[in-house]
Prior knowledge:
There is one protein chain. By secondary structure, this protein is mainly alpha-helical. The chain has 2 domains: 24-123, Serine Threonine Protein Phosphatase 5, Tetratricopeptide repeat (Alpha Horseshoe); 127-154. Helices cover 60% and strands 0% of the residues.
Amino acid sequence: xxxxxxxxxxxxxxxxxxxxxxxxxxxxxxxxxxxxxxxxxxxxxxxxxxxxxxxxxxxxxxxxxxxxxxxxxxxxxxxxxxxxxxxxxxxxxxxxxxxxxxxxxxxxxxxxxxxxxxxxxxxxxxxxxxxxxxxxxxxxxxxxxxxxxxxxxx
Length: 154
């Protein structure tokens, strides 16, 4: 009976804590997306980079499937675009395929939009591949603690 309760507790912990984190990595609520976009549109690079270091996915999608970079291009908002790119957002997200080629070309060729190669030399975009190591380590640690609990209750 103890093993059963322990396993149920571990499954409940996983469902309550870890699953929502995976579900939230690709989409932001409209209010959160709009707030992230407002920070970029204000040119507040420091705040956007700090949020990214804390786990904000700069390439998160809104309800329409657009990233902040695509929204900025659609609106012609160079300040937001430049801030997203400087903060480490993907320069060529999939949603660019849904913007007319002429609009995209005129936006990208404008002297107002920065080019990826124009980053300051001290800037390093956040490496989001590290997130999987953190999640994997957390899952391993959770499993190991569960295993210890099961074996301690024998």
